[in-house]
Write a structure and sequence with these properties.
single chain; alpha/beta; eight-stranded mixed β-sheet; eight-stranded parallel β-sheet; about 15% strand; binds phosphoenolpyruvate; binds magnesium ion
Length: about 600
C-alpha cells in the first residue's frame, strides 16, 4: 500500500530505490556489493564467523561448569543455550544467505539487514519473554560481526547505475539502486557513506542545517531528514521514492507515481546538464559586479568537486571531519598537515580557507558521545571554546595549518568567537605556534586570519572583529540558530528556523555593511549562501562573496548572471524595513 512520510527537504533531486534499514548503532558496518564469484567466499566468511562464535560460547559454558560445578550459573548457561539456538536459527541463516546470493550484499551488511527484519518481528510479539529475546539476537549478531572484522573481505564492487523508473518495480535483479533509512546518522557516519552504494538517505531526526543534512547536501544525492517515524514505517526492501526538493518520502509507490517521479528525475538531470555549461562563465551581474563563488568542503578530496564546479577557491574547509569518529585518537600534526596540504595542492593555487576544529553540539568527536548526552550541547564547549580549553591540541592544528600555507594560499578561519578574550587568546596561540615552528626550523607560510560571525553577540560587536581580523565569514546556520533560539538539529522546531526573520536580516546586513566600510572582505558560508531563493537578497544586502557546496554553485551563479545589483539594493532596503520580509522575497 502506498503511503508517504514528510520531513525536511535537504538536497536537490529524486532517488528511487529499495530501502535498506540500518540501526543507528550499526552504521559503521561495511556496505558494499560482492561480485558473483565472491558469493561463495562471502558465505564462507559468515560460516566461519558463526562457527567461531559457537566455539566461543562453548568455551564460556565449559568454564562455567568447571568453575562452579554443574548446577551453578544455571541461568547464564541457559541464556548461552538460547544464543546457540539463535545462531542456528533457520530464519537468520537462510535470510542472510538470501541477501548475499540474491542481492550480492557483503556478509556484514546481509547479517545486519536480516537482523533488522527479525528484530521487528520480536518487537511485535505479545509475549514479553519472547520480546526480550531481541536483545539476545543482537548480542549474537554483534559477536559474529566482531569475528568477521578479523577476516579479510573482498573489495567493494562499483555503485549501481541509476535505472529507468518504469523498469524498477519489475526488477528483481541485484542491480537496483538502494536508499538508506535510519533513525539517526551522525555527520561522521554520513561522511563514511560518501563513497557508498546508496542513492539517497532518509532519517527520522535532524533539521535542515544539521551537519548530517549538510554532509548529505555535499554528496549531492536526494535526502530527507526529520521524517520522524520513517524508520519504523518503512520495511526492509520496500520500494521508496525520496523527493529531496519537497522533503517527501513515498513508500511502495504505484506505477503511475513511479512514472511521474521518473519524469521529474530526468528533468533534474537535464537541468544539471544545462547548468554545467556555466562552469567557466565568470560570475558577474548584469551591472558588472564581480561575485566571488567559493566552495565548502569536508575532506581534502572534495577539492576536485570544487574545481569541477568552477569555484574560485575554498571558502570553508570544515576541518573537524578529520577529528570525528576516531575513538578518541585525534589526528597528529603530521596527519593534519598532509590533509591540509592535499586540499591546498588540490586547488592548484586558488585560496583555501581552513576553519579550525569546530566539534561539539551535533558534531561529537566520537560516535559514542551523542550530543544528547549533554544538557545543552549547542551552548556548550564547542568550536573555539573547546580549542582554547585544549591548547596543546589547538597548537598542533595551528602549526599544521601554518605548514600547509607553505604550499599555497591559505586563510585560517576561527569558529564561534564571541568575546574579546577569545580573540586575544587565539591570536596569542597563533603567535606561539609560529614561534614553535621557528624554534624547530620548520618551514611555514603566511596566512590571512578570519573570524566566523555566527553568534549574535559577534554580529552586534562586529567592530571588535574587524579590528583584529583580515576578513569575516558569516555562518548563517549558527547565526540563525542562536538568534532565534532554536536548535538546528531538532526537527520539532524546524518550522521556526527562519533565515528571513527580521532580526537575522538586520544582523546580516549590519555585518556586511560594516565589513564593506572597513574595506575587509565578508563572505557568507552558511547554507543560506547556496540557497538560490536567497541569492538576490544577499546581493541586495551588499554581499559579494558566497561559499557553498560545489553542487549548489552553478545554480547560484545562474541567479547572479540574471541579477542587477542596483535594483536589488533598493529592494533589499524595503525587505529590511519589513516586519514580514518573506512576503517581499518573490517581488524582486
Ligand atoms: C554556519 O554555522 O553557518 C557554518 C558555516 O558552520 P557549521 O554549519 O559548520 O556550524
Ligand atoms: Mg557554525
Amino acid at each position: 500500500m502506498t503511503f508517504s512520510v514528510h520531513g525536511q527537504a535537504v538536497s536537490r533531486g529524486i532517488a528511487i530505490g529499495r530501502a535498506v534499514l540500518v540501526a543507528s548503532s550499526r552504521v559503521d558496518v561495511a556496505h558494499y556489493f560482492v561480485s558473483p564469484e565472491q558469493i561463495e567466499s562471502e558465505i564462507e566468511r559468515l560460516r566461519q564467523a558463526r562457527n567461531a562464535v559457537v566455539e566461543e560460547i562453548g568455551r564460556v559454558q565449559h568454564s562455567l561448569h568447571e568453575f562452579d560445578g554443574k548446577d551453578a550459573h544455571h541461568e547464564l548457561s541457559a541464556l548461552l543455550d538460547v544464543h546457540l539456538m539463535l545462531l542456528q536459527d533457520e530464519q537468520l541463516t537462510s535470510g542472510v544467505k538470501h541477501w548475499i546470493v540474491e542481492r550480492h550484499y557483503n556478509a556484514e551488511w546481509a547479517l545486519t539487514t536480516q537482523l533488522e527484519i527479525i528484530a521487528r518481528q520480536f518487537d511485535e510479539m505479545e509475549d514479553p519473554y519472547l520480546r526480550e529475546r531481541k536483545a539476545d539476537l543482537e548480542q549474537v549478531v554483534e559477536r559474529m560481526l566482531r569475528q568477521m572484522r578479523g577476516v579479510a573481505s573482498p573489495v567493494a564492487a562499483p555503485v549501481p547505475a541509476r535505472r529507468d523508473a518504469q523498469d524498477l518495480l519489475l526488477d528483481e535483479t541485484v542491480d537496483v539502486p538502494l536508499v538508506l533509512v535510519a533513525h539517526d546518522l551522525s555527520p561522521a557516519d554520513m561522511l563514511q557513506f560518501k563513497q557508498s552504494v546508496f542513492a539517497g538517505f532518509v532519517t527520522d531526526v535532524g533539521g535542515k542545517t544539521s551537519h548530517t543534512a549538510i554532509v548529505a547536501r555535499s554528496m549531492d544525492i536526494a535526502a530527507v531528514v526529520g521524517a520522524r517515524s520513517a524508520s519504523q514505517l518503512i520495511q526492509q526492501d520496500d520500494w521508496v521514492i525520496i523527493d529531496g526538493d519537497a522533503g517527501l518520502v513515498v513508500v511502495d509507490p504505484s506505477p503511475i507515481v513511479l512514472a511521474e517521479y521518473g519524469y521529474k528525475q530526468r528533468q533534474g538531470d537535464l537541468e544539471r546538464e544545462r547548468l554545467s555549461r556555466l562552469r567557466n562563465t565568470p560570475a558577474v551581474t548584469l551591472d558588472g559586479e564581480r561575485i566571488e563563488l567559493l566552495a565548502n568542503i569536508e575532506q581534502p578530496s572534495d577539492a576536485a568537486a570544487a574545481l569541477a564546479a568552477g569555484a574560485v577557491g575554498v571558502g570553508l574547509f570544515r576541518s573537524e571531519f578529520l577529528f570525528m569518529g576516531r575513538s578518541g585518537r585525534l589526528p597528529d600534526e603530521e596527519e593534519q598537515y598532509q590533509a591540509y596540504r592535499e586540499a591546498v595542492e588540490g586547488m592548484h593555487g586558488l585560496p583555501v580557507t581552513i576553519r579550525t576544529v569546530d566539534v561539539g553540539a551535533d558534531k561529537p568527536l566520537d560516535r559514542a558521545l551523542r550530543p544528547d548526552s549533554h544538557l545543552n550541547p549547542a551552548l556548550g564547549l564547542r568550536a573555539i571554546r573547546w580549542s582554547l580549553a585544549e591548547p596543546a591540541m589547538f597548537l598542533c592544528q595551528l602549526r599544521a595549518i601554518l605548514r600547509a600555507a607553505a604550499h599555497g594560499q591559505v586563510h585560517m578561519l576561527i569558529p564561534m568567537l564571541a568575546h574579546a578574550s577569545e580573540i586575544r587568546q587565539t591570536l596569542a596561540l597563533l603567535d606561539k605556534a609560529r614561534e614553535q615552528l621557528d624554534a624547530a626550523g620548520v618551514v611555514y607560510g603566511p596566512v590571512k586570519i578570519g573570524a566566523m560571525i555566527e553568534v549574535p553577540a559577534a554580529a552586534l560587536a562586529v567592530g571588535l572583529f574587524l579590528s583584529h581580523f583580515d576578513f569575516l565569514s558569516i555562518g548563517t546556520n549558527d547565526l540563525i540558530q542562536y538568534t532565534l533560539a532554536i536548535d538546528r538539529v531538532d526537527e520539532a522546531v524546524a518550522h521556526l528556523y527562519d533565515p528571513l526573520h527580521p532580526a537575522v536580516l538586520q544582523l546580516l546586513a549590519r555585518t556586511i555593511a560594516e565589513g564593506e566600510a572597513c574595506g575587509k572582505p565578508v563572505t557568507v558560508c552558511g547554507e543560506m549562501a547556496g540557497d538560490v531563493g536567497m541569492t538576490r537578497l544577499l546581493l541586495g544586502l551588499g554581499l559579494r562573496s558566497f561559499s557553498m557546496h560545489p553542487s549548489q554553485l552553478l545554480a547560484v551563479k545562474q541567479q547572479i548572471l540574471r541579477s542587477d545589483t542596483r535594483k536589488l539594493t533598493e529592494w533589499a532596503t524595503r525587505v529590511l524595513a519589513s516586519d514580514e520580509p518573506a512576503g517581499l522575497i518573490t517581488d524582486a
